[in-house]
Amino acid sequence: MTVETKTAEFDSISLESGASLAPVCVAYQTYGALNAAKSNAILILHAFSGDAHAAGISAETGKPGWWDNMIGPGKAFDTEKYFIICSNVLGGCQGTTGPSSINPQTGCPYAMSFPVITMGDMVRVQAKLIDFFGIERLLAVAGGSMGGMQALEWAVSFPDRVRAAIPIATTAKHSPQQIAFNEVGRQSIMADPDWNNGDYYSGRPPARGLAVARMVGHITYMSDESMREKFGRRLRDKEKFGFDFSVDFEVESYLRYRGSQFVNRFDANSYLYISKAEDYFDLASGTGSLAGAFGKAKARFLVISFSSDWLYPSYQSQDIVRVLRRSNHDVAYCDLPSNYGHDAFLVDVAEQSDVVRGFLGSTYKEKS
Amino acid sequence: MAIAAQAARKPFVGELLGRGDFAIISELVEPDSKVLDLGCGEGELLAWLAENKGVDARGVEISAAKAQRAIARGVSAYQGDIDEVLADYPDQAFDYVILSQTLQETRWPLKVMRDMLRVGRHAIVAFPNFGHWSVRLSLLLTGHAPKTELFPYEWYDSPNIHFLTVDDFDQLVRKEGFTIERNYFLSGKRTVSALPNLRAEVAVYLVRK
User: Fold this and answer.
1) I need a surface site. Which of A65, A226, A236, B149 has the fewest CB within 10 A?
2) What percent of chain B has pLDDT over 90?
3) In Å, how far is A34's CA from the nearest CA of chain B?
4) What number is the average pLDDT over the span A190-214?
5) Helical (H) or strand (E) element with A137
6) C-alpha distances in angstroms, B78 versus A1, A336, B39?
7) What 3-state DSSP class applies to A268?
8) Which CATH architecture describes the domain A178-276?
């Protein structure tokens, strides 16, 4: 299945900060077909560095989507039954308006003049895309990590527009540890002289800073066990230590490779803005309590965590489930066993597929 | 008594999903009601009730693997410990709270019973009867902790941590001032009416406050 990224353009959006953006472009892909009643649409929400290319083979790059193992004919998000939409987030750098986009006022990239955005802003832009499709109510919103935060935000901000929410490996608020890792990433970018206060689009991007930020990120996505399994203490292309600071270990080689690859596809300023939006995320901030936030929510929930995820530990999912239970919301929850750490929702998908398929199936059957 | 009258109506119970107590529970639950199943296993009963009686079905299961399979079946289940999570639910959130063959496994059965009737309008409790003649005989003749078809475990690896008889349950219900709306006593696929404390393998009670 070859897929293309399309773009929708919207006049303007008012942001939580009080600023506004005009116009806003949104890059998106779709898979499967929308039924006549428009009742089978599922919005997939990508994680921090993801994009609209969630499934199929990209016509542009020839690469499979980031959740291709979950989305497709007969898969958990079955494109023979459901109409799947995935869009790049506001502030991103894969076709949706972000700091690397041209500011129509100046004819130059926004860079640091791009307004600070929130998870709520990202979701409101997604809602415009759903309007664009003429879809009143989504069958489900689903995503892992930052995508899970958006799934929660959708259920709370648009209670009448979501029948089911599937937040995976996520949290209702960013913890100090999560903020801390993001801040290390940001400082790494901003400490690179090439960052130049964000004004680097006509010159050299802060590739070293961004690569280090990504290396830190990758460590947090894995687990102690998965790193031991994957790399051990194996040396890279050598029999003994080099007694210098070139690459000795496999794990160093892996991180450097991941860092250098990331620089080719991701904008450093987007890293700053999106990580800030994550750090600002606290579902309870509007009402003062998580229970208050979920007060208006009408969706069914399927909450999934992974046993070895230490970046978004299971207790954060259980906090969400406990509050939902206390207010008697319809919630299913399981902590799936996995050694893959936070990455599990992307790579260890057999059991995740089973629960998502069953949950979606019963939601779709229930009222359609 | 009422007990005998209930049971006499229907000497044979069918099986539902291979279980006599499920067959009775499936008849007790009113259509389109809200049901919470404590210890829902892989969600077989809840899935049946949702499919055939249109109930809004929720389940709690302590085994992660079973909870996972229940969700895969389309049931809103979550992994959790009954003793802990039951306290979380608001009052009268459900029409029925079901505890099927699990009361004897809970740490605090009385607390569970009270919470069930706080959270639900009705409680449905099914439990294996430790007063059955085969259990009594097993202890008497072997001098070992009873091992029967109903209680197949060694004493050291049994999930059952409380042993109760039909009379014990009746006594508790009286003491707590609960009302027995219906009860059924099963021996194999038959209901028994006379001497249930001696002859019932499994008892199913519908109770309210």
Assistant:
1) B149
2) 78
3) 23
4) 97
5) none
6) 35, 11, 10
7) helix
8) Orthogonal Bundle (1.10)
- Cα B1 → chain centroid: 22
pLDDT tens sequence across A18-44 = 999 999 999 999 999 999 999 999 999
Angstrom distances, CA of residue A358 to CA of A78, A302, B160: 11, 10, 31
Q: How many CB atoms lie within 10 A of CB A105?
A: 9
Superfamily of domain A2-174+281-367: Alpha/Beta hydrolase fold, catalytic domain (3.40.50.1820)
Tell me which chain A residue has its CA closest to the CA of residue B119.
A328
Contact criterion met (CB < 8 Å) for A354 and B68: yes
**R_g (Cα) of chain B, nearest Å:** 16
What is the token pair recorded at A326?
């206390």
Q: Which residue of A has its CA nearest to B66?
A: A334
Where are the alpha helices (H) located in chain A, listed in sequence order? 119-132, 146-157, 176-191, 207-221, 224-230, 250-265, 268-280, 290-294, 314-326, 344-347, 350-367
Residue B12 CA to chain centroid, in angstroms? 19
Q: Out of A39, A49, A58, A145, which one is annotated catalytic? A: A145
pLDDT tops 50 at residue B7? no
Chain centroid to Cα B39, Å, comes to 10
The ipTM of this complex is 0.90
Helix, strand, or coil (residue B177):
coil
pLDDT at B3: 46
Is A168 within 8 Å of A143 (Cβ atoms)? yes
Q: Which of A46, A53, A218, A342 is catalytic?
A: A342
End-to-end CA distance of chain A: 28
- d(CA A310, CA A134) in angstroms, rounded, equals 39
Query: What does DSSP assign to residue B145?
Result: S
pLDDT at position B20 is: 86
According to the model, what pLDDT value does residue A110 have? 98
d(CA A169, CA B23): 38
In degrees, rounded to 5, the angle at the alpha carbon of residue A328 between the alpha carbons of residues A322 and A334 is: 45
Which domains are present in chain B?
A: 2-204 (3.40.50.150)
Instruction: Fill in the amino acid letter for A229.
Output: E
Question: If we measure between CA atoms, which residue out of A169, A209, A163 comes closest to residue A190?
Answer: A209
Least confident interval from A91-95, A181-185, A269-273, B15-19: B15-19
Q: Could you say which DSSP state residue A348 is in? A: -
In whole numbers, what is the pLDDT of chain A averaged over residues? 96
Residues in contact with A198: Cβ distance below 8 Å, sequence separation at least 6, in sequence order:
A99, A111, A112, A269, A272
Known catalytic residue at A53:
no
Q: What is the pTM of this model?
A: 0.94
CB of B60 closer than 8 Å to CB of B85: yes
How many Cα neighbours within 13 Å face the side chain of A331? 26
The Cα–Cα gap between A149 and A203 comes to 34
Q: For residue B128, is the peptide bond before it cis, meaning its omega torsion is within 30 degrees of 0?
A: no
Structure tokens at A332: 């299913």
